[in-house]
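Q: Entry one of two.
A:
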Amino acid sequence: MNRPHFRALGPRSRPRQGTTRAAPRTRLRTRDLLTEAHAGMLQRPGRSALTALGTVLGVGTFVAILGLTATASSQIDSRFNTLVATEVTIEDIGDDSAEQLANSFPDDAPSRMERLHGVQHAGVYWHVSVSGRSTVTAAPVGDGAGGEEAPVVAATPGVLAAAGPTLAQGRLFDAFHHRRAEDVVVIGSGLANRLGITTLETQPAVFVGGTPLTVIGIVDDVDRQEDLLLSVIVPSTTAEKYWGGPSRGERAKMLVSTRLGAATQVAHEAALALDPAHPDRFKSIPPPDPRTLRGNVSGDLNQLLLLLAGICLVIGTVGIANTTLVAVLERTGEIGLRRALGARARHITAQFLTESGALGALGGLVGTSLGTLTVVGVAVARDWTPLIHPATVAAAPVIGLATGLLAGLYPAWRASRIQPVEALRR
C-alpha cells in the first residue's frame, strides 16, 4: 500500500490549559490525488482493464455507429443522385372525352424528348389488356395450364434503354423490331426460370393470350423500373397490332433518363416539348429532393443506432459502478487507515472519482480508436469513402470521462461514509 500524502495546515502551538486543541485542517494536493488514483488502479491491473472494457465497448460502438451511419448515408445519397435523380416520369392525364385519344403521346414522342438538352433515353410504355387468356405460357396448351400470370408491357425501345438493363442472355428489341412490329419479346430472368426457358439458342417462344412471341432477350437486372423484371415486354407496335393501344382506363407513361443535374429542368420542359398545343395533357414527375431523402434516411438510422450506442454506454456505466463498488468493499481497511491519518470524506470521494473518471477517459480514448478503425475497415472492405464527423471523435473521450464520473458517484459516496473505527475493526 502506498503511503498516503496528507498535509496538516495551521500553527503547531500547544493548546492553552483548559482548552481543547482543534483537529488540524488537512488537504490533498492535486499531484498527490493523481498519484494515489494511479496507484489504486495499478494495484489490480486486470480488474482495472475489465472495468474500462465497458466504456471501451460503449464509446467504440458510439463512434462506429455514427461513422457508419454517416458513411452509409453518403453512399445512399450518391446512389440516389446517380439513379433516381436522373429519372423523370411523364404521365398521360388527358381526359376520356370522345375526341381525346387514350394515348396522348405523339408517335414521335421519344425523339421529341431526346432533343431536349440533358436527356439520354426516353420511351413510352403502357400495360396491355389481353383479351381471352391472360396467362403467359411456353407451349400452346389449350387451357392455359402450366402458365404464369405476368403483366404484359408494351414499350418503345427507349424504355428498355432508359431502364438500364443487365442482360443475362440475348439482346433487347430495337428500332428495327419496333418499326416492323416484329413478334418478339423480352422477359425477366425470374419469369424465364418459371417457364423453363434456360437458353435462347433454340429460339423459344412464349404465348400471350394465344399469340406466339419469340423470346430474344432475358433481363437479369435493371437500374430503374424494377417491375419490368416481372413483366413480358413487347414492342408497342406489336402490342397495337394484336391488342390495340391503351384502353380508356389505362393511360400510357413515359420513362426518361437524364444526365446528372438535368432532371428538374427536363421535367419542367417535357409537357411543352411533347405537345405545345396541349401541355396540360401531361404531368411530369421530377425526382424528389435528395436532401430530403438523405435527411430522412440519416434521421431514421441515427435514431435506431444511437439507441443501441446508448444501451452500450449504460452497460459500460453499470459495469464501472459495480467494479468500483466492489473495490470500495475490498479496500475498506485502506480507507479506514487513510481516514485515521487525517483524510477527510471529500478526499476519499475525490480519490475514487478520479480513479473511475480516469478509467472512463482511458476507455473512451481506446473506444474512439477502435470505433474509427472499424469505420475505416468497413469502408475499405465495401469500397466506400469513410466519413466521420470531427465532433464525434472529439466528444467520444469526453463521453467516456463523463461515464466514468457518473459511474463512480455512488461508490465514492459509499467510501466517504466509511467510519475509521469500523473500517479498522474489520
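Q: Entry two of two.
A:
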Amino acid sequence: MGHQRHRVWIAGVGMIPFAKPGASAPYDQMGAQAARQALQDAGIDYADIEQAYAGYVYGDSTSGQKALYQVGMSGIPIFNVNNNCSTGSTALFLARQAIASGAADCVLVVGFEQMSPGALGSVFSDRPSPFAPFDEATDALVGMPDLPLALRYFGGAGLSHMKQYGTPLSAFASIRAKASRHAVNNPLALFRKELSTQDVLDAPVLWPGVMTRLMACAPTCGAAAAVLVSESFARKRALRRDVYIAAQAMTTDRPSTFAANDMMRVVGYDMSRAAAGQAYEEAGLGPQDLDVVELHDCFAHNELITYEALGLCPEGGADKFIRAGDNTYGGRIVTNPSGGLLSKGHPLGATGLAQCYELTHQLRGSAAARQVDGARVALQHNLGLGGACVVTIYRSA
C-alpha cells in the first residue's frame, strides 16, 4: 500500500436508529436521512460533495442513486458497493482512497440496508453461489445441515475455539451480556434491555453446547453515513479537524482459509489478523495503544475470536481477557461501546458506517453516557465472510 499523501479527516457523521425488518422507512429514505445528517454535522451542502459511495447488499443496482437523489442531483459520480457484511467499510475504504490519492477533496459515504426477517439467504438460485466453497468446508468441518448457514459458520468457529483452548460457553454469554450493558446507553441501538450472563445462557438453545439465541445478532434495517475531506478542503472551509483516519487496510481470503481445516479460518480469522497487522504498521501503533474498538460481533463467537485476531489478547487468551473485564469500561480496551451488532442488529450495508459513527463520537468526546474516558485512538473491524475484512484506525487530533 502506497504512503498516504493526504490526511483524511472525518468532517461529519450521521446515523438513524436501527429498526426491525418491516418497521423502518424504505432504504432510500433511510439512506437520504443519514446522508443529510452527515452533511449537517460537517457543516457543508450536497453541492460540495465531489463523489459518493453507497453501500448495500440487498437491493437492485443503483439503489445508491435512488437514496442520494433525494439529497441532491448534482451530477457527481455515485458508486454502488456490495461486499457482504463488510460493505459499509469497503465503501469507506474507497472514499478514503479517493481523498488520500488526491482524486477528490470531499466525499460522501452512505450505507443502508432494508432487511427481511429471518436468516440470510441467497437471492439468485439459478447460478453458482459465491458461498459454495465456504459451505463445502463447513459441511466437512461441522455438519449440522439443519441449522442456518451463518449460525453454522460462526458457531462452528466458536466451537473450534472451545475445542482448541477449553473456552467455556459462558465466555460467549458474558460477551452478549457486556454488549447489553453498553447498549443501555445507546439510543440508536434496537435492543437496550440489560441482560446477565445467565440470561444469555438460559435463552432458547440454537445449537446445544455452542449457541443460544441471544448470542446471534438480528437482521435490522438502518443507515449511517460519513463525510470525508482532505486537509486542504477542511482548512479552506474551516471544517472541524478533530478525527482522522490514521490507517486502513482491507484484506481478502488466502489459501489458509480452507487449507487449515479450521472453522475460525473459514470465517476470516486470518483476514482479520492480516488487516489488523497492516493497519498497525501503517499507523505506527500496536494493539496496546488502542483506547476503544468497534468490532464485528455478528455472533458473540466472532467477537471472542476477533479479540485474538486483532492482538487485543494472546491466542487462546480471550476467556481470561473477558473474565478480567479488559473488554469493557474500566478495563484495557472498551470493545463495542455502541452495544455492537448484538445490540444494534446488523443492517449489512450500514454496519461499517455505524461503527465509524460511534468511533468518531468517541474520539470527539461526544459519546455522552457511552464515552470512553480520554479516548484518542480507535480501531474499527468490519468483516464479511467470503468477502473482505476492513480494519480502520482513527486518531483524535
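A: Comment on entry two: The chain has a mean pLDDT of 96. The chain has 15 helices and twelve strands.
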